[in-house]
Amino acid sequence: MSFALSVNGMRRTVASSDPGETLLDYVRSLGLTGAKEGCAEGECGACALLWLEEEGGRSRLRAINSCLVPLAAAADREIYTVEALAQGERLCPAQQALAEEGGSQCGYCTPGFVISLFAEQSDRKGGPAALDALSGNLCRCTGYRPIRDAALRLPPLGPEHPLFRRLSQPAPRLAPLSWQSGSETFLRPTRLEGLWEIAARRPEAEWAAGMTDLSVERNLRFRRFPCLVSLEGIPELRGFREGPQGIEIGAALSLREVEERLAETPNPPPGLREWFPLFASPLIRNRATLGGNLATASPVGDAAPLLLALDARLRLLSSEGSRELPLSSFFHGYRKTALRPGELIASVRIPKPYPAIVRFYKVAKRPSDDIATVSLGAALDLDANRRAARIRLAFGGVADRPLRSTAAEEALAGRPWELPAVERAREALAGSLSPIDDHRGSAAYRLALAQNLLEKFHWQTRFLAP
After folding, report:
1. Could you tell me the pTM of the whole model?
2. What is the CATH number that goes with domain 174-354?
3. Max Cα distance, the chain (Å)
């Protein structure tokens, strides 16, 4: 058994691989050493590559962290490294701009910046560059001003570049895959029936979507999975529907796809559009999924607090059928959920009517591309007398799981949206939360953050109309 992929326009066949081998390892073995390993956990961007995907009915070039992609997950993919962007001796615009602006010193990080800039160029229709595209790339020696200057002078990618012309053609389709690498098996079905067959045959199988979290376990903790089952090829997990009852988001859609579809939705749930820039980096969002972020059940995951504030529900699916569960009942403890053996998250449903006022706050060492110390998702409806008619407060980083603070909600419900009620809620938080101590912050610090974020929410919304 073998599989094929395309690298810089050349079809490659993989007949064997080592356990734990990544796409980064593979391209470097081909002599394409522009991509490098820096952190092995998706934070530095030195390993960035481009791959082609079909989104919204057209082909798109996406920058990804190749250190977080198991080699088998690249089967059938079309991949481009930094070596493919120049045309002979003629540099691509991103390379030329970085050279002329002095945006490269030691050069270790430069190929990753080029990849992110090129992807942003290829997706832009006009106007200045979206500098957020570079938030997943770190540089330790050049300084960011010349890199910023290089980005801002770049026009959208033009038809003179071969990869621009490639975007007018369909992206490759994913085929079913069964791959053995030592003691590891990687399976990628393309039908739900195939998924249930695997679940029955391999009860130890673990579902995998974007694999941005699982791959960190593989890279840094050398964890090996006897059987990984990719959900990327299952169309039923990639839906997106908006209707009178609310919005339903497929669990296997990448966060980038969700972001773009919400941008085309006339009345999306409030708070979601503003939330995306705080969730990791574009390199991560191009692969990570809502379903994966929730299923890992991290107490500091970015999705849970906001979705809890929006009263989200999960549609869970197994060979025995589907069931719906409030997200507030999904988390059972540290990395523990209500998922039964062989069950997966099929979609996330956010019901209407949406709250009038929604905010998401995240305290971290960096505003984006970092794990939260404490986060708050808050939703509020005020009545005509400016009383809290409906309020939901959901926190991350203050317990062994994401949770709603019903004690604080009860202290605020029905009361004027003023400081005395907020002070009551602060006291309720002190009596109901049980933060953990770790290297990101002490329990006392986390509690103070939670209380201060609630007060910040009040100060930002105290004059808003009901």
Report:
1. 0.94
2. 3.30.465.10
3. 70
